[in-house]
Write a structure and sequence with these properties.
Blueprint lengths: L11 H36 L2
């Protein structure tokens, strides 16, 4: 995150942008992990048919 090299020194508005960006990235990472788990389970269930 090139624009946020030192978040402690950002103005208040930019700090909230930074936190929002982190939340979005965290959610995206969580969602992709969930998708991987769902695909793994579905593949397992298909193989048992």
């Amino acid at each position: 995150m090139e624009s946020f090299k030192n978040p402690q020194q950002l103005p208040k508005t930019a700090k909230f942008q930074y936190l929002t960006l982190l939340k979005g990235m965290s959610y995206g990472t969580y969602y992709l992990a969930w998708c991987d788990q769902a695909i793994e389970l579905l593949n397992y269930l298909i193989q048992k048919m």
